[in-house]
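ok so I'm stuck.
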Amino acid sequence: MPEIKRNVKIITEQHITNDPPPQPDYPLRSWSIQIVLVNDQGADVPANIFEKVTYKLHPTFEDRQTQVVKKHPFKIQEKGWGEFDMKIIVTGIDKGGDHELHHDLNFQSERYEAIHTVSFKNPKPGLLAALKESGPVGGEENGVKPKRADESAKKKKRPDKGIDMEKLADNLQRLGEEDLLQVVEMVHNNKTAETYTKNDVERKSSFLLE
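replied:
not stuck anymore, here's the structure
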């Protein structure tokens, strides 16, 4: 199975509170972050491919620096006055592994979105079923072309490889020139894409068939 990719959207919302500012010129803000998926139609859908999301905040949050959320939409709500970069670790269901995202918490807009791409290699059945709800998971959509029916039919029509080639070669050598030319013509007229022939023009008695 090929690598399956999904777009993860991080939605950040923030606003200034009425609380006294902890630092001069730095008002206290309430902010929240949540996680959704963007499906193959471009719509936001629940991030049901994850069993939990771990937020690694700034050290000043002390005992709240690491927060684990196990329920959609994996939302955290906090207050603070400073901007900082954080790590967000999304963990796939059914042993889908940890995927680390880097997020910039800033107060330039009251709401902003950031999209990251997460990849899964050889997902287990539970994760594969969840991935199907947000987009293609295999076949030509992910770069793997299924075997065509005509290719399978060609394989079934291959000649029996139990032919005694030595006996066949011996009999061909006994043929006269006219009969041998008729055999060569029959081979050329009935050869397939899998047949290889070589007519050695310098050695007129040589003819190769594979």
